[in-house]
């Protein structure tokens, strides 16, 4: 048996102790903080636990998304229309849809990169061509959305600006460019057309909604740009919308962007259309009156009043503390 000299043993023990101390320091970093109380006494506190030293991040942090939405304006400079998968023998029933570029640019700027935003599109045909539909209006109803879908109010108000226009479908944003229609979008439009309980209160809306002509316009946020797609449900799509992977339930429709004519927006009379930050006030049958206006951004002040109430409460507490008399000054 080999005998190790005491000096080498002490050196090995010292190295082991040093490594163990380093591991402990890495796991429990000493943090020293210095504070002064109201009596003017300095208090020095050393903590070993990592409490309140880690930053918690979440995908629902609206401040980060609010700053990220600044890139939406630059995306409007690169708007691409996807007409690559169109059927060559386009029938007159499908026709061609032409949208105003200013409407799409504004609709993209007020949206969110992660949460879907939707609206109903209205338009009319030019006098010389009945097979072309010009999208001239976007009605943005009260809504609440998430990463995968958006829920719109089923109430369809009447307005004098819609007398000469017909409803052509609906438009929504999405985070990725999907060439196919998913189950949620088919189910949304199918329920909109087949739900008699919701539509009996608005016979005018029931008469003008034509499922053979209504389209779904999608604005996909691709890297550094936006991609526009247009789809139309087939008869099988309205009846078999529960099958998410069927390819014969929809067909792509041709859509064009034009600067020849301009469009306008219709909003609720109070200007509030985004209920994501105050979801308790939203309901599927929320009644509202439409008016001609420019839509506010997704994170506008009127869409998050609770945040400003919290700021006011904090300022009020700070003011109350300042009014307390102290004899130590």
TrEMBL record:
**Protein known as:** PROCT domain-containing protein
PANTHER family in the record, alphabetically? PRE-MRNA SPLICING FACTOR PRP8, PRE-MRNA-PROCESSING-SPLICING FACTOR 8
Any one cellular-component term (Gene Ontology): catalytic step 2 spliceosome
Offer one Pfam family short name for this entry.
Answer: PROCT
- What species does this protein belong to? Piliocolobus tephrosceles
UniProt record, GO biological process: spliceosomal tri-snRNP complex assembly
Q: Name one GO molecular function term.
A: U1 snRNA binding
Enumerate the spans annotated as PROCT domain: 215-325
